[in-house]
């Protein structure tokens, strides 16, 4: 009996809360996201090299300077496919530092007629067009096409330059007349000098301003252009900015006057004398 009690006492579990020994733990600082990404890239490169799939060669390829820099700054010239593969027929993408194909020349972007026709004529001849990227792989610099194609397009561009210029002029005049008609229809009481000022500013070709955007309707473009003109020329908005007010604060302060003048130009309820009195009060308060 005593023997059984001794055995049961030996097998009894230890009570919780007993004194435990403290084992010192080594603190490991957390890794930064950059170091985690760099390690993942290195592991991926090592795996690809072991499979012989990095450059299409065996696993004995040496790690190049470009490969060592994958985890950090992009190398000056990389072969790791940092530019997307083109899905278009007879088109390939390349870096600016890659060697030229035989008989090819570089065509810088900028002249739409030359670039478009070089691309189209090269494809029609069933030859490859190379789209050239800068060293970052984020910006295109131009294209590479056969030299005979480029020479023929330059000759055609020179022969049609005057005709194309006249066509562009007619198209610009048509666009300007269309914009003028929209403003006159929407704001029949707008002064003539204000209408011309808006056309020459907000609707100026190449300005990138609201009148030239393709993401807004004609009515919305006219509204925004007129509001901007009124704000800058018929309210104390500019003087408030010079006095140190923030843009949002100044916009909110003059919005009532902008809306009143705009309504008057539309032929609404606001009378010219009421608008003038409101503007005078704002000028005096500032």
TrEMBL record:
Residues 7-24 have a biased composition (Basic residues). Residues 33-47 have a biased composition (Polar residues). Signal peptide: none annotated. Pfam families: DUF2293 (PF10056). It comes from the Eukaryota. Residues 1-61 are annotated as: Disordered. Residues 183-266 form the DUF2293 domain. InterPro entries: DUF2293. This is DUF2293 domain-containing protein. The lineage of its organism: Eukaryota, Fungi, Dikarya, Ascomycota, Pezizomycotina.
């Amino acid at each position: 009996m005593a023997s059984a009690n001794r055995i049961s006492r030996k097998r009894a579990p230890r009570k919780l809360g007993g004194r435990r020994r403290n084992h010192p733990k080594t603190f490991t600082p957390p890794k930064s996201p950059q170091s985690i990404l760099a390690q993942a890239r290195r592991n991926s490169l090592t795996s690809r090299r072991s499979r012989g799939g990095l450059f299409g060669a065996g696993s004995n390829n040496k790690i190049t300077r470009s490969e060592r820099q994958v985890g950090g700054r992009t190398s000056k010239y990389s072969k790791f496919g940092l530019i997307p593969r083109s899905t278009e027929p007879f088109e390939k993408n390349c870096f600016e530092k890659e060697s030229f194909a035989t008989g090819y020349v570089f065509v810088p972007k900028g002249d739409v007629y030359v670039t478009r026709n070089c691309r189209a004529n090269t494809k029609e001849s069933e030859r490859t067009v190379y789209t050239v990227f800068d060293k970052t792989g984020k910006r295109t610099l131009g294209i590479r096409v056969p030299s005979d194609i480029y020479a023929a397009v330059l000759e055609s561009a020179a022969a049609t330059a005057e005709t194309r210029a006249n066509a562009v002029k007619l198209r610009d005049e048509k666009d300007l007349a269309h914009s003028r008609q929209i403003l006159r229809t929407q704001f029949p009481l707008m002064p003539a000098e204000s209408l011309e000022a808006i056309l020459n500013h907000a609707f100026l070709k190449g300005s990138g301003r609201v009148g030239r955007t393709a993401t807004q309707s004609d009515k919305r473009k006219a509204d925004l252009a007129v509001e901007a003109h009124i704000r800058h020329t018929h309210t104390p908005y500019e003087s408030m900015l010079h006095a140190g007010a923030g843009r949002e604060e100044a916009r909110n302060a003059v919005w009532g006057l902008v809306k009143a003048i705009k309504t008057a130009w539309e032929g609404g309820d606001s009378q010219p004398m009421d608008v003038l009195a409101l503007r005078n009060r704002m000028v005096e308060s500032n």
